[in-house]
Specification:
The two termini are 50 Å apart. The longest helix has 56 residues. It contains 19 helices and four strands. The protein has a two-stranded antiparallel sheet with strand order 1-2. The protein folds into two domains: 211 residues, no CATH class; 217 residues, no CATH class. The protein is an all-alpha fold. Helix 2 packs parallel to helix 6, helix 4 crosses helix 8 and helix 10 packs antiparallel against helix 16. GO terms for molecular function: proton channel activity. It is a multi-pass membrane protein. This is Otopetrin 2. It is found in: Cell membrane.
């Protein structure tokens, strides 16, 4: 095959020779038709191999782009944090501006191209980009836009003595957020069939840009939250670890700078989650490029709290109580009084102990119900489900890391005092809760929804794998039709012919298993929101309790916490999204 033919195969322009059914008119014609069918099968197999090679090449190219962008970005982020002379935050922001402009240009090109080409997107993946996920993206995007506005207003006050790049970057990022939110809202379900190579590279560029924005935001927020212990003879204060003296000679020209700076730092968690949501949706789109999706199987899942009461009520009680203890913790810790700090830490540890204990008991009950559940496990490839499971396990590693480092530090020092005992208990219980919750969520994601018609496949890569089932369905037809090769469309439709006279589906009351699962999911969802809010908005017991810094030394401990904690925060928000999906399918 020539390179032009391989390119055409990758872009979907494969010529499919016709097939001829055998007829009783002539033995010679029947033999000739059979020979042509065998030749067609050989060509079809060859075309499939060409498409596979083309897809692998485009995957490799787009992956190379991602790796290079991310590694270069990591180097710039690391240099801007620990070196304020050679590489600073301005250099990093220039790099991000270039990425954002390129990604925005590609998204605009994609939107215009697909709107003009009728055959660019022939299929939609019903599992990708559900409305609640896109709604969350819009909410986090709005908060990110407000953050950028506050940043611009704040940096205007430093324009006389600082670089204008600090104003340009949030302005460009706000345009990027608007374009990307519109792009993902419209195209998150697309399975692109044309310009696959360009689309895969563009989606990987989008993924890389969002990950770089996430990395930069996490680094900036972690530096802001990191409390550097004072040296001997100095007063207790926290300062930016990038500036050796802790203070800047550039003063703001208006009085609102301090308020604006505090305001936009409180919006950083939403901006961080926005970047991660967009990264996940871009990855699913990348996996769906060139996929063939059966549009005839879409389970209509609606959110309602009918017959569900205990889980939401107990979850709301835990959420309100947790927010109250969090406010007490923040106020008392910021006062700097050691006695009030220890009391606030004790309240915080007790609240977390109660929360993770109840969550662990709930997940054990949920896993037991799954043992009694008769629903089938889902079959077929689903990039959305695979990504959810991968992110769930991968993000939990950050929380596992902090917990195990804390356990070793507390046990190594003898677990002296009530605070250290509570710290040890919270860490151990959190490890148990993470393991149980991962099992519960993964099991729920791999179960078919409670639906009258739950045996139909929804996404498949090669439609010909369904032909065996189709042939069994028509085994009573004449031999002439049995010998004819079925088209993928006929095969798919033949799988969904409902028997005539079948009754319409009726809504019934929830069974006790369904109700129990929904109660558990609602409770776990609200508790995970609580455990996301506390660290996302500034709770740092890892620094307020000095045992970790004393045992591992401050530099190592701050590295462990500032790397593990962002993943732990993302784990809680991703668990909320996954639990909501399990709630709907239950």
């Amino acid at each position: 095959m020539t390179s032009e033919a391989e390119m055409a195969a990758e872009e979907g322009y494969i010529y499919s020779p016709p097939t001829f059914p055998s007829t009783p008119c002539s033995i010679h014609l029947g033999v000739q038709a059979g020979s042509m069918r065998r030749g067609s099968d050989v060509l079809s197999t060859s075309g499939g191999r060409m498409r596979e090679r083309g897809r692998n090449r485009s995957w490799l190219l787009s992956s190379i782009i991602t790796v290079n962008v991310l590694i270069l970005g990591i180097a710039l982020v690391s240099g801007s944090v620990f070196n304020n002379i050679k590489i600073n935050a301005i250099d990093l922001q220039i790099f991000l501006i270039v990425l954002v402009i390129l990604t925005t240009a590609w998204m605009l090109y994609y939107t215009i191209y697909t709107s003009r080409e009728d055959h660019a997107v022939l299929y939609k993946d019903s599992h990708a980009g559900p409305v609640w996920l896109r709604g969350g993206l819009v909410l986090f995007g709005i908060c990110s836009l407000i953050m950028d506005v506050f940043k611009i207003a704040n940096y205007v006050g430093y324009l006389h003595c600082d670089s204008a790049v600090k104003i340009v970057f949030p302005a460009v990022q706000s345009v990027f957020i608007l374009v990307q939110t519109y792009f993902l809202w419209l195209h998150a379900k697309d399975c692109v069939q044309l310009q696959r190579n360009i689309t895969r590279c563009g989606l990987m560029l989008t993924l890389s840009t969002n990950l770089m924005l996430w990395m930069a935001a996490v680094t900036e927020e972690s530096i802001h939250q990191t409390v550097v212990p004072p040296e001997e003879g100095n007063s207790t204060h926290s300062y930016d670890i990038r500036a050796p003296g802790g203070y800047s000679s550039c003063n703001c020209s208006h009085s609102a700078c301090a308020i604006l700076e505090k305001a936009y730092y409180y919006l950083y968690p939403f901006n961080i989650e926005y970047s991660l949501f967009a990264s996940a949706m871009a990855y699913v789109m990348w996996k769906n490029v060139g996929r063939l999706v059966d549009e005839h199987n879409h389970h209509s899942l609606h959110f309602h709290l009918k017959d569900v009461l205990v889980g939401p009520v107990v979850g709301l009680v835990m959420l309100v109580a947790g927010l109250g203890t969090f406010v007490i913790y923040k106020v008392d810790v910021e006062k700097g009084d050691p006695g009030k700090r220890d009391t606030a830490l004790m309240i915080h540890y007790v609240m977390n102990t109660v929360a993770v204990t109840l969550m662990s008991v709930s997940t054990v009950a949920g896993c037991a119900i799954y043992r009694l559940d008769q629903r089938d496990h889902v079959s077929g490839k689903n990039p959305t489900r695979s990504l959810d499971v991968g992110l769930l396990i991968g993000a939990s590693i950050g929380q596992f890391t902090i917990c195990y480092f804390t356990i070793v530090a507390v046990v190594g020092t003898g677990a002296l005092g009530h605070l250290n005992a509570l710290n040890l208990a919270v860490s151990l219980l959190t490890v148990i809760q993470l393991c149980l919750q991962n099992i519960f969520i993964i099991e729920g994601l791999h179960r078919e929804p409670f639906h009258e018609d739950m045996h139909r496949a929804s996404v498949f890569t090669n439609p010909y794998v369904l032909q065996a089932q189709a042939h069994r369905d028509i085994h009573n037809l004449p031999g002439t039709f049995m010998e004819t090769k079925l088209s993928p469309a006929l095969t798919v439709h033949s799988m969904h012919v409902a028997p005539s006279g079948s009754p319409l589906p009726q809504r019934h009351r929830l069974t006790w298993k369904r109700r129990a699962l929904k109660e558990i999911c609602a409770f776990l969802l609200l508790c995970n929101i609580l455990l996301w809010i506390m660290p996302a908005f500034g709770a740092r017991p890892q620094f307020d309790n000095t045992i970790g810094a004393e045992f591992y030394e401050f530099t190592m401990w701050v590295t462990v916490v500032n790397i593990g904690l962002p993943f732990g925060i993302f784990y809680r928000m991703h668990s909320v999204a996954s639990l909501f999906e399990v709630f709907l399918t239950s």
